[in-house]
Amino acid sequence: MYDFTLHRPTSVDAAAAAIGGASDGKIMAGGMTLIPTLKQRLANPSDVVDLGAIAGLKGIREEGGNIVIGATTTHATVAADPTVKAKIPALAHLADGIGDPQVRNRGTIGGSIANNDPAADYPAGLVGLGATVHTTKRQIPADDFFIGMFETALAEDEIVTAVAFPVPEKAAYMKFANPASRYAIVGVMVSKGPAGLRVAVTGAGPSVFRLTEAESALGGSFTADAVAKVTVAADGLNSDMHASAEYRANLVSVMLKRAVAAAAG
Fold first, then answer.
1. Of 109, 118, 126, 153, which one has the fewest beta carbons inside 10 Å?
2. Residue 39's CB: how many other CB atoms inside 10 A?
3. pLDDT by 10-residue block (mean), the chain, 265 residues
4. Number of domains in the chain
């Protein structure tokens, strides 16, 4: 690691002041991506602002028809929370499938979405459920939050504080996971509820995207048969040592049908 100044604020205001005053600061939540990056000397920040001591960023509550999850709430907490399991079981299922127990007990929802790894699960969860990201400056609809590979709408000094999920009538998340990392080769979230009919795909492209053709098909009939002929072109999809673009394109169709079947019950 390179030398840096570590800040451990106990309030959101103090954290915002620390990152705003840094010449090249990085925010750390669970540290699942940042710490390995620092150890490999792939980043050389002047300051690291650790959010772990801010109690107000942790926890899950029901508010105004939404399930609101604090930014530093761990994946394991989301997966086990009785309110999430009762109101949005698809989200609990998604969180329970992230990484391994070590990752789930350290990684956080805010850190995951701020990093926006193209194979992460939570981006599909947010977009597929029509969530809203709360920050120190504003509220951002999930559709507008994820910009591109490892890129979000966050400003340099902006901190995610919570994510609000509207409670759907029905929803499901299905993914084809990398057997080693558990990252999504392809993951699909489908939902029907206050945010409308939504289908979001992660792992397949440079960033999460909505599958509008599938959404239109589900408007006529929320069944796996309704999306049986929905396909995705391989052009522009990710291709790497784990799966070709063509393979991912086929997986989108497979995971879509499985997710709709699960959501339909």
1. 153
2. 10
3. 95 96 95 95 96 97 96 98 98 97 97 97 98 98 97 96 98 97 97 97 98 97 97 97 97 98 95
4. 2
